[in-house]
């Protein structure tokens, strides 16, 4: 598979998924991971939301470096992402929340009805993405660097 083909495959796969495991680090250096709902843009920017009272939100206020994994099974495909998370504010935040309400309507309809939920929006600009596949025909693992 060429790199261009791998990038196309990766983008299609990412858009078919709704959840990622997001890893952050707290102020004391302790790693933590949580599932987030996300979407990805054509330029590989990932967006996710979290409540302000979560550990991941607190961690991101101390350290913006994150790792994400999309595709934890049962299929033989996984995408690993590393990058920097940035808070999204103002009109961009409203645009992204609108996109979430459209793309992930069933999920956010539930959460937005619960009183007291105050969401923050983050975008992750990856500096490293790797596609992992098990090639059944060759009986081998294949890692392809996307970014």
Helix and strand arrangement:
Layout lengths: L2 H14 L2 E7 L5 E10 L5 E6 L3 H8 L2 E6 L6 E12 L1 H14 L1 H8 L6 E17 L4 E6 L2
Antiparallel strand pairs: 1-2, 1-4, 2-3, 3-6, 4-5, 5-6, 6-7
Helix pairs in contact: 3-4
CATH architecture: Roll
| SS strand fraction | 35-45%
Strand order of the largest sheet: 1-2-3-6-5-4
Q: Mean pLDDT, rounded to whole units?
A: 89
Q: What is the CA-based Rg, rounded?
A: 16 Å
Count of alpha/pi helices:
4
Let me know the number of strands.
7
CA-CA gap between termini: 15 Å
Helix content: 25-40%
SSE succession: HEEEHEEHHEE
**Number of self-contained structural domains:** 1
CATH topology: Pnp Oxidase, Chain A
The largest β sheet comes out as: 6 strands, antiparallel, barrel
The global form is: globular
- Segments where pLDDT lies below 50 for 5+ residues? none
GO molecular function: coenzyme F420 binding; oxidoreductase activity, acting on the CH-CH group of donors
Keywords: Oxidoreductase
InterPro entries: F420H2_bilvrd_red/Heme_oxyg, Pyridox_Oxase_N, Split_barrel_FMN-bd
Protein name: Pyridoxamine 5'-phosphate oxidase N-terminal domain-containing protein
